[in-house]
Amino acid sequence: MNHHAPSDSLVIAGKTYASRLLTGTGKFKDLDETRAATEAAGAQIVTVAIRRTNIGQNPGEPNLLDVLPPDRFTILPNTAGCYTAEDAVRTCRLARELLDGHNLTKLEVLGDQKSLYPDVVATLKAAEMLVKDGFEVMVYTSDDPILAKRLEEIGCAAVMPLAAPIGSGLGIQNKYNLLQIIEDAKVPIIVDAGVGTASDAAIAMELGCDGVLMNTAIAGARHPVLMASAMRKAVEAGREAFLAGRIPRKRYASASSPIDGLIG
After folding, report:
1. pLDDT value at residue 16
2. SS3 for 81?
3. What is the rounded distance in angstroms from the CA atom of residue 132 to the CA atom of residue 128?
């Protein structure tokens, strides 16, 4: 199906993934819908809010790992709901214990409950602590290019700028910031937060992002499993379009086409 080089895969922390769509596991009506949507999305990396989801810390309750087994999916524990660096670091360490020493983690330190905007000062602090502690950190941040570079320099495995506030569905609000982040980066850049529909995901990929992470856009759709399928195609199409190289924008075609080369 893919006509581009088969070597086009996403590499995060030394591991290779065919899918560039990463999905969240919260906000679905039940674990069955979570599983169906994840499969329809074709996601290989699934993010899990350790403070809200049972992955073994509550024995006897339904366990997410029963429907999304770690031998089939890369489980990406996240620190959703943490508002301080210390809290985020503690949550990551708990997740590492629950997942038998698994070091990949998604760091988010939120600044306020209304906007869920990242507290970038606390995020930098937590990222430094986690990298020192041997974690592979995929970090959620604002779309500030200087900050994105700083997080890369700290040693984060992937930098994940928001497209718009978490859960807003507003789509990409600042293409130029994202472009600058992508152009300057030596680690994967994954748009995380703010996607609302398939075209938003395609635009992120057309800009040259390495992937898109989303939860609300799928889980909150009227038909989550169908939206997951749409997002899978959008991410693939956007990636292919980026690799193919679009034509430049012009107000109208130049005269080179039909009349050029006519005799006379």
Report:
1. 97
2. coil
3. 6
Alpha helices by DSSP H, listed for 133-244, are: 145-154, 175-184, 198-206, 216-219, 224-244
Q: Which two tokens stand for residue 175?
A: 């293409």
What residues form DSSP beta bridges with 24? 47
Beta bridge partners of 104: 136
pLDDT attached to residue 254: 74
- In angstroms, the CA 101 to CA 67 distance is 21
What integer is the mean pLDDT of 171-180?
Answer: 96
Phi, psi of 99 (to 5 degrees): -105, 30
- Residue 193, annotated ligand binder? yes
Is 215 known as a binding-site position? Answer: yes
Task: Tell me which residue has tokens 């073994």.
Answer: 56
Position 1 pLDDT exceeds 70:
no
Query: Catalytic site residues?
Result: 106
What is the spatial distance between Cα 177 and Cα 175, in angstroms, rounded to a whole number? 6
Alpha carbon 259 to its chain centroid, in Å, reads 47
| Integer Cα distance of 138 and 103 in angstroms | 11
The CATH number of the domain covering residues in 21-244: 3.20.20.70
Q: Is 167 annotated as a binding residue?
A: yes
204-232: pLDDT as tens digits: 999 999 999 999 999 999 999 999 999 99
Single pTM value for the model: 0.92
**Angle in degrees, CA 180, 182, 188, rounded to 5:** 155
Q: 3: helix, coil or strand? A: coil
Contact between 22 and 211 (Cβ < 8 Å): yes
